[in-house]
Write a structure and sequence with these properties.
The chain has 7 helices and 9 strands, in the order E-E-E-H-H-E-E-H-H-E-E-H-H-E-E-H. It is an alpha+beta fold and 193 residues long. The chain folds into 2 domains: 101 residues, no CATH class; 68 residues. The longest helix is centred in the middle third of the chain and has 21 residues. The chain is flat, with a radius of gyration of 19 Å. It is found in: Cytoplasm. This is Cell wall synthesis protein Wag31.
């Protein structure tokens, strides 16, 4: 994407590698293993809307857990799609019929899920960083990543992604430009659908 004029520094907090959702500590969150196992079931098999709406996860407080709101929003989206698929597929059937559109939706959901994993990392720690070569301003990139997270499934357009511009930095830590550009190209592709 295109570099823009100069900005300010960001403080990077820690992150758990491979986490699917924002990881929280010292506040209530969902058990990571339980959530990961359920998401694997969503991506691998047809589940009923009731199964998605009724799932309950153990809450944790004294160890790392997934942000409850992020997980709940993801499950709401899955349940809404399952309801639509059931209504348009086999009348009022409890299970959606495996069709090409079902498979396309799963692939789209998986793709968006992978793209949004970047947004679940803490600000300042979403892409690899560089110091002595040109990079994008982390604060500006993080603001745009948060915007993508909020709008990818609704109002985000490919033109909006193409128009994104970030300040380039050299003498302070910046995000690796090729990594950010590759992610933006994938987001643009997802927004076109």
């Amino acid at each position: 994407m295109t570099p823009a004029p100069s900005g300010g520094p960001v403080q990077p907090p820690g992150q758990v590698p491979g986490a699917r959702f924002l990881v929280v500590r010292m506040r209530e969150g969902y058990d990571i293993g339980e959530v990961d196992a359920f998401v694997d079931r969503i991506l691998a098999a047809a589940l009923t809307t009731d199964a998605v709406r009724q799932v309950q996860f153990t809450t944790v407080r004294l160890r790392a857990g997934y942000d409850m709101q992020a997980v709940d929003e993801y499950l709401d989206e899955v349940a809404a799609w399952l309801e639509t698929a059931a209504a348009t597929g086999a009348g009022a059937a409890a299970e959606p019929v495996e069709t090409q559109s079902t498979n396309e939706w799963r692939e789209s959901l998986t793709e968006r899920y992978e793209l949004l994993k970047v947004a679940d990392r803490p600000a300042g720690d979403r892409f690899g960083t560089v110091r002595l070569r040109e990079g994008y301003d982390p604060g500006e990139v993080d603001v745009f990543v948060d915007h993508v997270r909020a709008t990818l499934a609704t109002t985000l357009t490919a033109a909006e992604v193409r128009a994104a511009e970030f300040t380039t930095v050299r003498l302070r830590e910046g995000y690796d430009m090729p990594a950010v550009d590759e992610w933006l190209a994938a987001v643009e592709s997802a927004a076109e659908r």
